[in-house]
Design brief:
about 325 residues, elongated, 11 helices, Rossmann fold, single chain, alpha/beta, nine-stranded mixed β-sheet, 2 domains
């Protein structure tokens, strides 16, 4: 379990203070860098933050934090065309009009059939069907949840198989995390962001207080973190960099930090390779709860990032007990 040193970093203001909510988003240029392990440990360090898993395409923070679901909501986005067989005249106009080849004749069917995977929800067939025999139903794309964990409330989601609009679902998760933070008087949101630099990442970092980019010491990792830094700079979000498993390739770790400084990034620290990280994953607990060398490194990274976030956004910190 976390030791007493964790309480030396005051994060939340006393009741009645009007401190702004700080939102730290942990991202990476690729999957497998260890960002979820770091975020779970950050949750153990913060103890009273709101947690958000915005890696909705492959959410896995719940595997470590074991959330107890308290609210479950349907996520709908876009529409699917559905042909009403009883009203269809079989003219075939919809088959000809569909630019995505999502509507076709099926063997023995009295009317065309819509492939929901291929359908882009453009609505052309709906508007141009002479018999008005096509419905335009809301597309169920997944679910989002509000849960309780041993380290605080957590907002997370699950995107459906082959579903789209992950960026919109990410925005839903972030908005709900902010609502939970305001309702529970918490001033820190910890976000487990998706990998890469695409739409879900943009939806995760836009308007955030700070970003922590987790890199691995490899040539591809060096390139990936550079792309994350460019993206964060474009959206004017302060960014810190942490090299995970740095001792596997110290030379590349040095290059990553040098490049980060050139781009104005903050060096949050390094985390060594430690087999205890895998042991913690197998047990379903955070690295901080297990302890070890990596746990000490993560503690230092967390303190650096939160201090930098506070300084950049004027939140400040106060002595414990103030």
């Amino acid at each position: 379990m976390p030791d007493s040193r964790m309480r030396s970093l005051p994060l939340a203001p006393s009741r009645g203070d009007q401190a702004p909510v700080r939102e730290l988003v942990v991202v990476s240029g690729k999957g497998g860098t260890g960002k979820t392990s770091l975020l779970a440990s950050f949750a153990a360090l913060a103890r009273d933050a709101v947690l958000a898993d915005c890696d909705v395409d492959a959410a896995d923070l719940h595997l470590v934090l074991g959330p107890r679901v308290e609210e479950r909501h349907v996520f709908s986005s876009g529409h699917d065309a559905v042909i009403r067989e009883r009203d269809c005249t079989g003219c075939g106009d919809c088959v000809e009009l569909c630019r995505f080849d999502a509507i076709a004749w099926a063997d023995g069917a009295p009317s065309p059939v819509v492939d929901p995977i291929a359908c882009e929800g453009c609505g052309v067939c709906v508007h141009l069907c002479p018999a008005r025999a096509i419905d335009f139903e809301s597309r169920r794309c997944g679910e989002w949840f509000i849960s309780e964990t041993r380290w605080g409330p957590m907002v997370h989601a699950r995107l459906g198989i082959a579903a789209e609009n992950s960026g919109k679902l990410v925005t839903t998760v972030r908005n709900e995390a902010r609502r939970v933070a305001a309702a529970s008087d918490r001033d820190l949101i910890l976000v487990d962001g998706p990998p890469g630099i695409g739409c879900p990442v943009i939806a995760s970092i836009t308007g955030a207080s700070a970003v922590l980019a987790v890199a691995e010491p490899s040539v591809s990792g060096e390139h990936d973190v550079d792309r994350v830094l460019q993206l964060a700079d474009h959206f004017k979000v302060p960014t810190a960099v942490c090299v995970n498993r740095w001792d596997l390739n110290p030379e590349v770790a040095d290059r990553i930090e040098h490049r980060a400084r050139e781009r104005g990034g903050i060096i949050a620290g390094r985390v060594r390779y430690d087999p205890s990280v895998t042991v913690a994953q197998v047990r379903g607990i955070s690295v901080l709860e297990l302890g070890g060398g990596a746990a000490n490194d993560i503690r230092g990274v967390f303190e650096t990032v939160v201090a930098s976030c506070s300084a950049l956004h004027g939140a400040g910190t106060r002595p414990e007990g103030a």
